[in-house]
C-alpha cells in the first residue's frame, strides 16, 4: 500500500521511541503517508495503523484530530493563510482576500484544474512575518505582499 | 536601551546555527565542565534555583523547583520533554531560538537530563514550522556525531538521547499533558492533574516538560552562574527574556531584553507605532492574556510582577500591539473563533462555552447584538473558568472578560448602532499588508 521509500522513512521514526511504543510514530507516519499519496484516504490510514500494530480507529482519531492532515483530496498546491489576530493586524486578511480573488475560490475550495486549494490557518507561530502562508504544510512563506503572492502563484503554476 | 542577548548572543542570522559556530560562541562549555568535574546533580538544580529562572512557556513556574520534583532515585525510565509547540497567537520566539541557536536547547536539555537522571528526551516541535523541525534533526545528528548525545556522553557514565517529534496542527498540544498524549501517538487531549507529569508522565514514567526558551537559558546559567543571570533581570524575575512583538509597530520581531525593562523602551526598540498612530491596547503575553489599555500599559515594565499588577500576564512574552484603527469587537471575534476552533472537545464547559463566546461576539460584530449580550458573555466565561481539565477554557475566557471590561463602550456602541465605532475604511487602512524594514 505504501511505497518502500515511505516505509523506510517510517522505520526511522519508529526507532525514535521505546521498542514497545511504536504508536508514538503515528503522527510522523501519517505525515509521510500523506506526502506520498497527497491526502489520507481511509485505506491509507488503515495501512499506517497496520504497519504500526495499532487499531485503525486509533490512527483515524489522530488523523482527524490534527488539522494539517487532509482527509479529503486537495489540490496539487495547498495554500494555508493565517488570518489570526496578530497576522490580521498586518494584512493577513488582505492577503487571503487577494489569494481568493486571484484563484477565484473561497477557503476550503480547489481550483477546477485541481492545481490549488486554499485554506484558512490558525496561528503558525510566525506572527512577526505576517502575512504568512504555508505551501503544502511544510514550506513557510513570509511577508507575503501582493507582488510576492503573484510570484509564488506563477512559480507554482509552472 | 536594555537589549541584552544571552540566548540569542553572537548570532548571525541563518549562517551560525551549526555546531562549530555554537562551540565558537562558548557553547557546550557548561556541559563539558559538568562532565569533567562530575558535578553533583543537586548542585545543578541549586544553581538553576539561584537564577530564579521562571518557565518561559507562559506559566512562569520556577524551573529549579520544577526540576526538584523529579524523583531522581526512581528506578526505571525517566523522560524529559521540550515544549516547542508554539501556537499561541502572538508567540514566535521559540521558532527563532531553534532556527538560529538550536544547540543551546540541546545543551540545556542534556544538562537538565543529567540533573534529573533522564535517559531519553523529546523536543515537540510545532508542525507548522516544519523547516525548523528538519533543521533540529540536523543539529541532533551533529551533536550525536560529536559524542554529545547518546551512550556515555563525552566518555562519562552518563547516557542520554534526544529526538525530535513534530506536531501537525493542534494548539492544545502546547498544554503539557496533551503534548505527552501526542508523543504517545494519540489525540492531544489533556490529562487530569494530579498525578503530575513528575510522577506520571510520558508512558506513565516520571517526566519533566520545559519550554524551549527555558532550556536555552540553562547553559548560560551553568556557565556564568545563577546569580549573574538573576542580576540581568530584577528580584523574583531573573534574567533576560525574548519578547515577540507583532501588530501595529514599525519593526515586528523578537527582542531579547532584561526583565524589568519599561514597555515604552521595548516599543521604541520595535520602531514605535506604525504610521505614528496612537496606541489603543496591548495583549502583553499571548492571545490568552487579558488585554491592557494603552495608558496602563505605558506605565508597565516587562516582567512577571508588573504585568500581573496591571491585571494581565507576561505569559509567553508575546506582545500584540493594537493601534487606534483597531475595532476591539472584531479583534475579540477573531480570537474567540480561534479558541472555539482549537478546543479539544473533552470538557463540556469549554467545548460548548467557546462556541457560545464566538457566536455571541460574532453577532455583536455583525450588528445583531442584543442588549443583554455583555452580561451573557460574562456569564458564559464564569461558567467555563475553573470547570475544565486544562487552561484552554480560561484562556478563551480571559480575553472576553478583559475586552468587555476595558472596551465596553465599543461593544455597547455595536449593540446599539449595529456598526463599528471605528469606521470600516479606517480599519481597512490600518490592517493592510505591512512589510516592515526588518525583512
TrEMBL record, chain A:
PROSITE patterns: COMPLEX1_24K. NCBIfam families: nuoE_fam, PRK07539.1-3. This is NADH-quinone oxidoreductase subunit NuoE. The keyword Iron-sulfur applies. The keyword Iron applies. Its EC number is 1.6.5.11. Binds 1 [2Fe-2S] cluster. GO terms for molecular function: 2 iron, 2 sulfur cluster binding; metal ion binding; NADH dehydrogenase activity. Transmembrane segments: none annotated. It catalyses: a quinone + NADH + 5 H(+)(in) = a quinol + NAD(+) + 4 H(+)(out). Belongs to the complex I 24 kDa subunit family.
From TrEMBL, chain B:
Its EC number is 7.1.1.-. It catalyses: a quinone + NADH + 5 H(+)(in) = a quinol + NAD(+) + 4 H(+)(out). Gene3D superfamilies: 3.10.20.600, 6.10.250.1450, NADH-ubiquinone oxidoreductase 51kDa subunit, NADH-ubiquinone oxidoreductase 51kDa subunit, iron-sulphur binding domain. The keyword Zinc does not apply. It comes from the Bacteria. GO terms for biological process: cellular respiration. It holds the Pfam family NADH_4Fe-4S. Keywords: 4Fe-4S, Flavoprotein, FMN, Iron, Iron-sulfur, Metal-binding, NAD, Oxidoreductase, Quinone, Translocase. InterPro entries: ComplexI_51kDa_subunit, NADH-UbQ_OxRdtase_51kDa_CS, NADH-UbQ_OxRdtase_suF, Nuo51_FMN-bd, Nuo51_FMN-bd_sf, Nuop51_4Fe4S-bd, Nuop51_4Fe4S-bd_sf, SLBB_dom. One of its GO terms (molecular function) is NADH dehydrogenase activity. Residues 329-374 form the NADH-ubiquinone oxidoreductase 51kDa subunit iron-sulphur binding domain. Its cofactor is FMN; [4Fe-4S] cluster. Belongs to the complex I 51 kDa subunit family. NDH-1 shuttles electrons from NADH, via FMN and iron-sulfur (Fe-S) centers, to quinones in the respiratory chain. This is NADH-quinone oxidoreductase subunit F.
Amino acid at each position: 500500500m505504501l511505497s518502500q521509500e515511505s516505509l523506510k522513512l517510517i522505520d526511522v521514526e519508529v526507532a525514535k521511541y521505546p521498542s514497545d511504543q511504536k504508536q508514538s510514530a503515528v503522527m510522523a507516519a501519517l505525515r509521510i503517508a500523506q506526502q506520498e499519496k497527497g491526502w489520507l484516504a481511509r485505506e491509507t490510514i488503515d495501512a499506517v495503523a497496520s504497519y504500526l500494530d495499532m487499531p485503525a480507529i486509533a490512527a483515524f482519531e489522530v488523523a482527524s484530530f490534527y488539522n494539517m492532515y487532509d482527509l479529503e483530496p486537495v489540490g496539487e498546491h495547498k495554500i494555508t493563510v493565517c488570518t489570526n489576530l496578530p497576522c490580521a493586524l498586518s494584512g493577513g486578511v488582505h492577503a487571503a482576500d487577494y489569494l481568493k480573488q486571484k484563484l477565484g475560490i473561497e477557503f476550503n475550495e480547489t481550483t477546477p484544474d485541481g492545481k490549488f486549494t486554499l485554506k484558512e490557518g490558525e496561528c503558525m507561530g510566525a506572527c512577526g512575518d505576517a502575512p504568512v502562508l504555508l505551501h503544502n504544510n511544510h514550506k513557510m512563506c513570509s511577508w507575503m505582499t501582493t507582488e510576492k503572492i503573484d510570484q509564488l502563484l506563477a512559480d507554482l503554476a509552472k | 536601551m536594555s537589549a541584552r542577548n544571552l540566548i540569542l548572543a553572537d548570532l548571525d542570522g541563518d549562517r551560525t546555527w551549526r555546531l562549530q559556530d555554537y562551540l565558537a560562541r562558548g557553547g557546550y562549555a557548561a556541559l563539558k565542565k559538568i562532565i569533567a568535574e562530575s558535578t553533583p546533580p543537586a548542585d545543578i538544580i541549586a544553581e538553576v534555583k539561584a537564577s530564579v529562572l521562571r518557565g518561559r512557556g507562559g506559566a512562569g513556574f520556577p524551573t529549579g523547583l520544577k526540576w526538584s520534583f523529579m524523583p531522581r532515585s526512581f528506578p526505571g525510565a525517566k523522560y524529559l520533554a521540550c515544549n516547542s509547540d508554539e501556537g499561541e497567537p502572538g508567540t514566535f520566539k521559540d521558532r527563532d531560538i531553534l532556527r538560529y541557536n538550536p544547540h543551546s536547547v540541546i545543551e540545556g536539555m542534556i544538562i537538565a537530563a543529567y540533573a534529573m537522571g533522564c535517559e531519553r528526551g523529546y523536543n515537540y516541535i510545532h508542525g507548522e514550522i516544519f523547516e525548523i523541525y528538519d533543521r533540529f534533526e540536523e543539529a541532533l545528528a551533529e551533536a550525536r556525531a560529536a559524542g554529545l548525545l547518546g551512550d556515555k556522553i563525552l566518555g562519562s557514565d552518563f547516557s542520554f538521547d534526544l529526538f525530535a517529534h513534530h506536531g501537525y496542527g493542534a494548539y492544545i498540544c502546547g498544554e503539557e499533558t496533551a503534548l505527552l498524549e501526542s508523543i504517545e501517538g494519540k489525540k492531544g487531549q489533556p490529562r487530569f492533574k494530579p498525578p503530575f507529569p513528575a510522577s506520571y508522565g510520558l508512558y506513565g514514567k516520571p517526566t519533566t516538560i520545559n519550554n524551549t526558551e527555558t532550556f536555552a537559558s540553562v547553559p548560560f546559567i551553568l556557565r556564568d552562574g545563577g546569580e549573574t543571570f538573576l542580576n540581568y533581570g530584577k528580584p523574583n524575575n531573573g534574567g533576560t527574556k525574548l519578547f515577540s512583538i507583532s501588530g501595529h509597530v514599525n519593526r515586528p520581531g523578537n527582542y531579547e531584553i532584561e526583565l524589568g525593562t519599561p514597555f515604552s523602551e521595548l516599543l521604541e526598540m520595535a520602531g514605535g507605532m506604525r504610521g505614528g498612530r496612537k496606541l489603543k491596547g496591548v495583549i502583553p503575553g499571548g492571545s490568552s492574556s487579558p488585554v491592557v489599555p494603552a495608558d496602563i500599559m505605558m506605565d508597565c515594565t516587562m516582567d512577571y510582577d508588573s504585568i500581573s499588577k496591571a491585571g494581565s500576564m507576561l505569559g509567553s512574552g508575546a506582545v500584540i500591539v493594537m493601534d487606534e484603527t483597531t475595532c476591539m469587537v472584531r479583534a475579540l471575534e477573531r480570537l474567540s473563533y480561534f479558541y472555539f476552533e482549537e478546543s479539544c472537545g473533552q470538557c463540556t464547559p469549554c467545548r460548548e462555552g467557546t462556541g457560545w463566546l464566538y457566536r455571541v461576539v460574532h453577532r455583536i460584530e455583525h450588528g445583531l447584538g442584543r442588549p443583554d449580550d455583555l452580561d451573557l458573555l460574562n456569564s458564559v466565561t464564569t461558567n467555563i473558568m475553573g470547570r475544565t481539565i486544562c487552561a484552554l477554557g480560561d484562556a478563551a475566557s480571559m480575553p472576553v472578560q478583559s475586552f468587555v471590561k476595558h472596551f465596553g463602550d465599543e461593544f455597547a456602541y455595536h449593540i446599539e448602532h449595529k456598526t463599528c465605532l471605528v469606521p470600516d475604511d479606517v480599519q481597512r487602512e490600518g490592517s493592510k499588508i505591512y512589510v516592515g524594514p526588518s525583512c
